[in-house]
Amino acid sequence: MTARTPATGDGHGDHPRGGGPSALSSLRSARRKGTPPGPGYKWVALSNTTLGVLIATMDASIVIISLPAIFRGIGLDPLAPGNIGYLLWMILGYLLVSAVLVVVLGRLGDMYGRVRIYNLGFLIFACASVALSLDPFRAGAGALWLILWRIVQAFGGSMLTANSAAILTDAFPARQRGMALGINQITALAGQFLGLVAGGLLAAVDWRAVFWLSVPVSITGTIWSYLSLRETAAGRRGRIDWLGNLTFAAGAGILLAGITYGIQPYGSNATGWGNPWVLAGLIGGAVLLLLFCYIEAHVAEPMFNLALFKVRAFAAGNLAALLTAIARGGLQFMLIIWLQGIWLPLHGYAFEDTPLWAGIFMLPLTLGFLIAGPLSGYLSDRFGARLFSTAGLALVAASFLGLLALPVNFYYGLFAALLLLNGLGQGMFSSPNTSSIMGSVPPEHRGVASGMRSTFQNSGTALSIGVFFSLMVSGLASSLPRALSSGLQAHGVPVGAAEHAASLPPVSTLFATFLGNNPVDHLLRSGGTLDHLSAAQHAALTGHTFFPHLVSGPFHHGLTIVFSVAAGMAVVSALASALRGGHRPAYDTPRQGRPPAAADPHKTAQRRHDTPS
Predict the structure, then answer these.
(1) Is residue 201 part of a domain?
(2) Which of 118, 209, 377, 501 lies at a C-alpha separation of 20 to 30 Å from 568?
(3) Residue range 28-57: average pLDDT?
(4) MF terms per GO, please (predicted)?
(5) Torsion over CA: 356, 361, 366, 370 (sign)
């Protein structure tokens, strides 16, 4: 009797036919060097990298909503004089490290193996999560411990995000790449907002629980990625561009730090853009980045491959991603302040409960991401990225204009619809845009391309905080002091105390609101002003509605500026997206288990016009 040989899949089918290899045997064979990955490998790569970017992006935002509980837990008032730096670095340290390092780590992935760098990132992330949850100190020392280990955690998270898109691009063929990158990237975007909800829920239990969440997930991811992922693209060993690395890290870090500290007041000014140290940081950072571009154009093996910008899809996609990230980051923080400082207190929520509920009421934004992201990625594989990305950005611009037209005390159904529209638009943009960027570069450059893409996104998020906080502070500075002084005096606060409270920088009021504190209590805590008022006056001033009613006019003026700028950025992003060119990927991924097909010389000649040498 002749033995029957079981049929196998075609290399990219979802399941092997007949008695094909099991998922377990595929994972085992994936660890054998030189063995082509099995038919199920691409789904293993998708699920693992999606877990990686989810935990990395959640931890970027989970701390934001948990800051009140964290600072109470370590016994530190972040709004006290001299402590504002702790607050800024707790918020921005993770983002700054991510913005500076991802391109370096993407380049290292190209040289030494994307999976190797990715696995190491999971391990570092797990160790940092354990250290964060075990903070043994209090007050300033406790804050420094958290800031230090958040930076280490960001280093591990950057290893994950810098290489995840490249791993997926290697694993999936062009006809499925948009769908895979859509799931991965939309999970990353959704993670930013899911982190807000998770942070609010966990901080209510224990501030250390905010960091406990990452421990089992990152340990599981570390073991899983080591056992299941494999290198599917040959690494290109070469020399590390040390001079380029140093100038980029220093230039980007100094520039972003200068923008960050521009939020703080300087002298009699509401913001710090006239501070000599801030100006020195902005100028020095810009000079170093110009020097970096010169170095990269003259070294044999650059870290930041400027030649990739000759590819129209790559250049247009990254410009659109940068501007969209700036608009999206500003939206996140402005919505939090709007909900926590105005809308939720007006509807009976205590200030200390607003961080959690702000995250919950912003869930329509996440829902829009989750609906549109994978679907647009799937459709863009067939019809191209330009249509979906450009239309998505048009929806984003329309949603910003809708938010611009809302009153401060809005009807939630309309607000939720606009958030859903914004999420749908961003989902339509992100997945096809990422697929277009990654499919436009040669396989050997995908690690650095992924790092460059992440650098633009992370830099945009960090920039957005400085840009939009400054716009909001400038809007408040013109009318908030007068409204605050007259409102406090009308409720019995002495003229001197009212004028002193009104003279405090608007950014202090914004941060108090952001942390879920009653801003009036923060403004009047010094000097015992509240203790000298009648019970009725005290109750009126510290109630839920006094501050929201008082600042609704100045705050709406600030929102008008913020959302107008965000809408303009979305329109420019849409124009950049429309210029990306045709939808066919310049490079495909060979089918798993099969050698690459012979190149068509006519197509190869055509690609040379749009591909870096």
Answers:
(1) yes
(2) 377
(3) 73
(4) transmembrane transporter activity
(5) positive
